[in-house]
Specification:
about 650 residues, alpha+beta, Immunoglobulin-like, TIM Barrel, 11-stranded mixed sheet, about 20% helix
């Protein structure tokens, strides 16, 4: 059936604004003209500059038509605080308005709640040195007058200040990009090399507050941007290699940690009816299963005294198992008796989160967890494929060292087996892909290896291609599946849920998934979540949206990805353009080939080669700003080659079958 969307959000906006206030650029005809901005607070003498970024500050986001508003509360990084832990705090409100093609206006207000010894508060612009190092900057109406232009050629010092002057605007020019920014009043402009900590950018600082601040001091400036540059509309070539299948891809998975009795059921029902979900992950509410160490939770459960939340979690696992999917069980909160230290409260701003398991209680711990899995099996008919502690590398909520993680695997694994459970342990279940070293002790421990059922990371906070390849190789070394147990891009987004309706958020998410699929080749990516939490649906009371329950662009992206046929293997695929992301699969037994493409730029022609000669046509689906999984075609294939068009900022899927 062909399904069409009625999107809750607006079409892809000109300014692309992250929820923490940073602009990534302005889109013209779908092409992103990069313009990287942030809100920055400098130490005296610019000894250090702290800027907004993902999970670096408290922030909120909202949209009203063509205006987006971000509020942030920034705090001095630890290295810039005094011995008592004190340092500056700064509040800011940023209003970004779409003012037309290639233009935007930023109104930025900083407020210093307390007296602060700072060097100033700024709107920052990061210029990639690879683009701008051969360019120059011109000031508009500088006072006093300065040189007509200042070269941005590479400096010889580690931190080289190119320019410091007051003006009414600035023009930043490279061979392929020009950024004009004008101010509502004369403003201090600082341009410098920012090669500290491995940065390869040039930094422009536009002052809103300068020098030390008094309690309650406020500064406000308006900045009008115009970005011009080359729009890439060149045709693209995508090359498939159908002769070298990689790892098996079961399909899209989902998390089903129940948190809202009011809104979860409708979302779960909708998603399970309308998506092919191949893997599921549920919570083990361990602290409710076994709150009192002196009791026998398995005997209590067998007697019919099961906590309602435990019962609901187990019923959720059964529902997923009835659909034939492997079920992963993860524990967040541990009972107080099982951990060292007081039960955690709100997450600390600094220092370690969570609590270690109490090693003196390990016999009781392993019996308690095994009892839960046994009851899940005997009462609900679900034998968990995998068990993990959620994100124990950072302590949400159990905290482990890499060595403790390995020890737990070889402690729980044999105990599960002794109890007749086939459940294995997930190696990793890390907060994102970057802590790859967390899994190394278990990889190197021959006593732990037999009990590892999968290698597992979460996709928050981004990662390099090299790190993704290391996760792939770790799973291959063990000959077990790789699983992305939590998929999405912004772990803090539940605090500012309007961002879920932004087309840019949906585009970044599906880009990440295709990149992971192409490089790491996981068995499944499990969306966080397919409940009302981080919902891919809008309405129905979710996030106070009382309109009708309806799919967002994120839903259609996931439905399109989930349309990958079962029993498909990852296939190598290459594209000759950097602003496209591709992943490909082949169900070789049935002769079905799938290619997924995210076009992050303007509309363009595309040529796909490398299809088997037995494939004569392709079906094509597109999700874009105005429609969801809309089918067009068919596309003719001749000699393994097909030609078609890629819509601007769209996600396209092509599926062909041997004839």
């Amino acid at each position: 059936m062909i399904l069409f969307a009625a999107f809750a959000g607006i079409a892809l906006a000109q300014p692309e604004v992250m929820a923490w206030g940073n602009l990534t650029g302005l889109r013209v005809e779908g092409h992103l003209l990069e313009l990287s901005t942030s809100m920055c607070v400098a130490q005296p003498e610019l000894a250090g500059v702290s800027c907004t970024g993902r999970e670096k500050q408290q922030n909120n986001y909202s949209r009203n038509g063509k205006t987006e508003t971000v509020t942030v509360r920034m705090r001095a990084p630890r290295e810039f605080r005094d011995p008592q832990g004190g340092g500056w705090t700064m509040n800011a409100t940023e209003i970004v308005e779409d003012t037309g093609p290639g233009t935007a206006k930023i109104d930025l207000e900083f407020t210093s709640p307390n007296e602060a010894d700072i060097g100033g508060a700024f709107l920052g612009i990061e210029l990639p040195a690879s683009i701008f190092s051969g360019g120059f900057v011109q000031l508009i109406e500088p006072d006093p007058p300065t040189a007509p232009q200042t070269s941005l050629a590479a400096g010889i010092a580690e931190r080289n200040e190119y320019l410091r002057a007051t003006a009414k605007g600035a023009r930043l020019v490279s061979r392929t990009r020009q950024i004009d920014v004008t101010f509502n009043e004369p403003t201090l402009v600082i341009v410098r090399d920012d090669r500290r900590k491995g940065s390869y950018n040039l930094q422009v600082l536009l002052a809103v507050l300068t020098g030390k601040t008094t309690a309650g001091q406020t500064g406000k400036k308006s900045f009008a941007f115009k970005v011009t540059g080359e729009i890439d509309k060149d045709a693209v070539e995508i090359t498939l290699d159908a002769s070298h299948p990689g790892q098996l891809f079961d399909g899209l998975g989902g998390n089903f940690r129940l948190q809202s009795a009011r809104t979860d059921p409708q979302v779960i029902d909708y998603n399970l009816r309308n998506l092919r979900v191949a893997w599921g992950r549920v919570e083990m509410p361990w602290s409710l299963w076994h709150p009192d160490e002196s009791t026998d939770p398995l005997a209590t459960a067998r007697a019919g005294a099961l906590h309602p939340r435990v019962q609901q979690a187990m019923e959720m696992a059964r529902r997923l198992a009835q659909k034939g999917m492997p079920v992963m069980v993860s524990a967040w909160q541990a009972p107080a008796w099982a951990i060292l230290g007081a039960s955690p409260g709100p997450p600390p701003q600094d220092g370690p989160r969570g609590n270690p398991l109490n090693p003196e209680k390990m016999a009781r711990i392993k019996d308690s967890i095994a009892g839960y899995l046994l009851f899940l099996k005997e009462k609900y008919g679900v034998e968990a494929a995998l068990f993990s502690f959620n994100e124990s590398d950072i302590g949400i909520n159990v905290r482990q060292t890499p060595r403790e993680h390995a020890e737990l695997i070889k402690t729980l694994g044999p105990w599960f087996a002794a109890k007749g459970l086939a459940t294995k342990l997930a190696l990793g279940d890390t907060s994102d892909a970057n802590p790859i070293d967390f899994i190394q002790p278990a990889l190197d421990d021959p006593e732990a290896v037999p009990y590892i059922g999968a290698v597992d990371f979460h996709s928050w906070r981004g990662c390099t291609d090299e790190i993704l390849a290391q996760w792939r190789d770790a799973a291959r070394e063990l000959n077990v599946p790789l699983v992305v147990a939590e998929g999405s891009t912004d772990a803090a987004a539940y605090r500012y849920p309007q961002i879920f309706n932004e087309q840019s958020f949906a585009l970044y998410e599906i880009n990440l998934y295709l990149r992971i699929l192409a490089i790491a080749q996981p068995r499944s990516i499990l969306q966080w979540q397919l409940t009302a939490d981080y919902s891919i649906l809008a309405g129905g009371g979710i996030f106070n949206d009382n309109g009708p329950l309806r799919p967002t662009r994120r839903f259609w992206n996931l439905k399109q990805l989930a349309a990958t046929p079962p029993r498909s293997f990852s296939l190598p695929v290459e594209c000759n353009k950097a602003n496209l992301t591709c992943a490909a699969f082949g169900n070789i037994a049935e002769g079905i080939y799938t290619v997924h493409i995210v076009n992050n730029g303007a509309t363009r022609a595309a040529t796909l080669t490398g299809l088997p000669p037995t494939v004569k046509q392709l079906r094509l689906w597109v999700t874009g700003a105005e429609h969801g999984m809309q089918e067009s075609g068919p596309i003719a294939v001749t000699g393994g080659k097909a030609q078609f068009s890629l819509a601007a900022t769209s996600y396209t899927t092509l599926i062909g079958v041997n004839e």
